[in-house]
Structure formats: C-alpha cells, structure tokens
Here is the input.
Amino acid sequence: MEREIIVKKRDAVATRAAILAAARQRFLRESYGSVGLRDIAGDAKVDVALISRYFGGKEGLFREVVADEEKPKIFFEPKSIDELPGFLAQLVVDDADEDLEKRMEMFIIMLRSASSPQAGAIIREFVHRDVLAPLTELIGGEQGELRANMLLAILMGVGVLRSIMMVDGFADEEDEEAVIAECAERFRSLFAAALTC
Here is the structure.
C-alpha cells in the first residue's frame, strides 16, 4: 500500500513539472491571451483537468511560471545602500550564461503577456514584491521608489542588450578578467549615480 502512494507522488511531481515546462515554452512563444490550457496539456501529454488540479487554472499556472524558484530573494541580499551599486554591478557582470538566459526568457514571457489584465497584474505583483519593494526599502527616503525604478530600468536595459541584441563588450579573449573588472566598476558608478538623482 505504501509503495503505491510513493509511486503516485512521483507521478504527480513529474506531471506537475511537465505541465510547468510546457507552459513556460508556450508563454515564451505566445502571449497570455493566446495560450490555451488544452495546448499546454497537449504539449505536456496530460489531461487538461490536471492543470486545474495542480495550479487552479491558467492564472495559477502563469504565476508559477513567472515565480523565480531558484533565486526568489536575490534583491534582499544587499544589506546597506552602500553595498547596492557594487551588488548590482556584480549581478550584471557575473551573470552566468545559463542564469542570464533564464532571466531573459522570463523577461520575454513578461513582456509578451504584460498587456493582459490577468497576467499584467501577476507580473506587477512579482516585480513589486521581489524587486522594487526590497530596493525601495533599502534605498529609503522620499525618492526611494523612483530610484529603485531607475535601477531596475538600467538592469533590464543591460539584460536586453546582452541577451537579446547580443551586445556585450565583456568578452576580450586576451584580457577577459581586466575587461570584466573595468565593466564592473563602470556599472557600479552608473548605479551609484542613479541613486543620487
């Protein structure tokens, strides 16, 4: 009897993962409004009713897709405003290819679906809770929210240049470490300047 329960749990975990993977690929290629639950279920090779069982429907599934499970609290890491420019600069230059690719895929998913009232509300909630709120709290002061928004705009712009437009400038094969260190210092200065505006 116990063995059957374990097998069912394993199947449930695998099924849930297959649905999430299929949904991520669909939302990466199509907007929230264009994606149907039957399409996702077909891609995952599961019954469409399982999406409602595991995620409560399309909104719950989209919420799971945009949630950052690996680094959900990354913007809570800097402990003082003095650390913030260096932290953000290192985030830009140390971004491993896989991390950068995942973040840019998430950016594309959000961009494609931001005009949907349902998806847009979910996206705003996540961006506010996981990025803007911790940055605003750390920055503090009367213009904290504005400055947090400016920092996010810079981060997103750099990410788009690096991943989508393939403009990097960090790869000098002869002296890669020196180029990365110089870029980190320039980004640190840029983020520090954004905090003083």
The radius of gyration is 20 Å.
